[in-house]
């Protein structure tokens, strides 16, 4: 096995096409449905909020979809991202396991999100769109779309979940630096926001609420489309450059992963790393694939697999996914990017097919893992990414207990340089593990739509 620490691909080996898992699934993902009629949705139904090219990708079953050269040219600013062997962490853990991570924190916005932001901005610009509206949790997606919008001359409006808006002012400043406007959600700017504020004036907000506001803006303006940073098929598609690169880099390292790990909120960074490996698993390869989520918002481990709205205001298409219910309000933890009530339909389907595992952790045990990782490898991870690190460390310790020299690969989906208040709270003992509200879950699940046929 190679003795290198970092593995870099030359730019000319950056993927030229996105991989679409829909082409290889043994059974297809249940189709999205119209939020009003519950009938299977048509491309025309999505036209008010998405550009045509994105709609085509959303519904495609083609295995490979070419990446436009203008998108690849911009992505060369940070792609291919490095694969790193976490040798110092291995030594500290005294494990026979080999630990690798794909470092997506090297992008301009500091996370994996620009992989799809640039593509979506490109397609919108091509179709003459002037303005994009979106939501963001912790701010990684909002800052990524702001970055992409600045490159293509698009106005960008971001509805940022209020608890994160207050917790992470530097994410907000980054969005504004790139030229976007950022408001706290729920806001008085939309009917959806005003309705929430009327009922809950002190609402911390949620991604479901912020999505409602962003979709409302897109649907009400002819020059505006909506851009989503996770969950939908086209977003998962755009992220597969991560896993494709990782496969080439693991070959450079003369290693193959026995375990593939990523955190899961809406599902995009997990899909990006894992879907190329899911394809290999479908073909018969032995590999464990683990999605890791917060115990305070346990969509995959506690959610129901059912058709549900993607937003609290019930404006978005119905998709079949693991859901806690569109009205479920997750506690205000620091992993804002994982505070979403639903999971990507394709990731949910992969879970239902038994092609992946899911586990959840409390935020304090994830921060303990993040600090251990930072002190070993020198990178301060985003709170979201700390969930993958926690699982990777636990798997490495399992290998130690079992005497197995397995290879572990995880996705470091972003750095935590804009999340230092969370670390300050952790070191001062202010960070708590909120109890999961079973009664709130039960109530939210009673509101699931009835779908016939």
Automatic annotation (TrEMBL):
Q: Keywords of this protein's UniProt record, alphabetized? A: Amino-acid biosynthesis, Aromatic amino acid biosynthesis, Lyase, Pyridoxal phosphate, Tryptophan biosynthesis
Q: Which CDD domains match?
A: Trp-synth_B
Any Pfam family the entry gives: PALP
Q: Which co-factors does it depend on?
A: pyridoxal 5'-phosphate
Q: Which residues form the Tryptophan synthase beta chain-like PALP domain?
A: 77-414
Recorded catalytic activity of this chain's protein: (1S,2R)-1-C-(indol-3-yl)glycerol 3-phosphate + L-serine = D-glyceraldehyde 3-phosphate + L-tryptophan + H2O
Modified residues annotated as N6-(pyridoxal phosphate)lysine in this record: 113
Would I find Lyase among this entry's keywords?
yes
Q: In which pathway does it act?
A: Amino-acid biosynthesis; L-tryptophan biosynthesis; L-tryptophan from chorismate: step 5/5
| First-tier enzyme category under EC | lyase
- Assembly notes: Tetramer of two alpha and two beta chains.
**Homology family:** Belongs to the TrpB family.
* PANTHER family documented for this protein: TRYPTOPHAN SYNTHASE, TRYPTOPHAN SYNTHASE-RELATED
Task performed by this protein? The beta subunit is responsible for the synthesis of L-tryptophan from indole and L-serine.
What is the name of this protein? Tryptophan synthase beta chain
Organism, per UniProt? Pararhodospirillum oryzae
Gene behind this protein: trpB_1
């Amino acid at each position: 096995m190679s003795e290198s620490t970092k593995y870099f691909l030359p730019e000319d080996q950056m993927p030229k096409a996105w991989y679409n898992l829909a082409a290889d699934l043994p059974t297809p993902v249940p189709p999205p449905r119209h939020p009003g009629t519950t009938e299977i949705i048509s491309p025309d139904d999505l036209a008010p909020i998405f550009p045509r090219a994105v709609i085509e990708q959303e519904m495609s079953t083609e295995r490979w979809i070419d990446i436009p050269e203008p998108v690849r040219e911009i992505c060369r600013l940070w792609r291919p991202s490095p694969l790193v062997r976490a040798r110092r962490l291995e030594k500290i853990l005294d494990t026979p396991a080999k630990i690798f991570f794909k470092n997506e924190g090297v992008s301009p916005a500091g996370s994996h999100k620009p992989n799809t932001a640039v593509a979506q901005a490109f397609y919108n610009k091509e179709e003459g769109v002037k303005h994009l509206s979106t939501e963001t949790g912790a701010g990684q997606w909002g800052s990524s779309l702001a970055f992409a919008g600045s490159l293509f001359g698009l106005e960008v409006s971001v509805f940022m979940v209020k608890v994160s808006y207050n917790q992470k002012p530097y994410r907000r400043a980054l969005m504004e630096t790139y030229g976007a406007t950022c408001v706290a959600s729920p806001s008085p700017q939309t009917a959806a926001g005003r309705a929430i504020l009327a009922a809950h004036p002190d609402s911390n907000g949620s991604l479901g609420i912020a999505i409602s506001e962003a979709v409302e803006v897109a649907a009400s303006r002819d020059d505006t489309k909506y851009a989503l940073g996770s969950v939908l098929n086209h977003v998962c598609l755009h992220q597969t450059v991560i896993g494709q690169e990782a496969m080439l880099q693991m070959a450079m390292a003369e290693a193959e992963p026995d375990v593939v790990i990523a955190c899961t909120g809406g599902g995009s960074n997990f899909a990006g790393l894992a879907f190329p490996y899911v394809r290999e698993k479908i073909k018969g390869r032995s590999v464990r694939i683990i999605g890791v989520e917060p115990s305070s918002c346990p969509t995959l481990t506690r959610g129901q697999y059912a058709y549900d709205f993607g937003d609290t205001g019930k404006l978005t298409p119905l998709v079949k996914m693991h859901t806690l219910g569109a009205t479920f309000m997750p506690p205000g933890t620091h992993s804002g990017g994982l505070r979403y009530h639903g999971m990507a339909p394709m990731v949910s389907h992969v879970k239902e097919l038994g092609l992946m595992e899911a586990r959840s952790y409390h935020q304090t045990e994830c921060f303990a893992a993040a600090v251990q990782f930072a002190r070993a490898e020198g990178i301060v991870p985003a709170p979201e990414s700390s969930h993958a690190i926690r699982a990777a460390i636990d798997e490495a310790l399992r290998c130690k207990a079992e005497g197995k020299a397995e290879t572990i690969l995880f996705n470091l989906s972003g750095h935590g340089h804009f999340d230092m208040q969370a670390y300050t709270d952790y070191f001062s003992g202010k960070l708590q593990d909120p109890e999961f509200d079973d009664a709130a879950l039960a109530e939210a699940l009673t509101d699931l739509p009835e779908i016939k046929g």
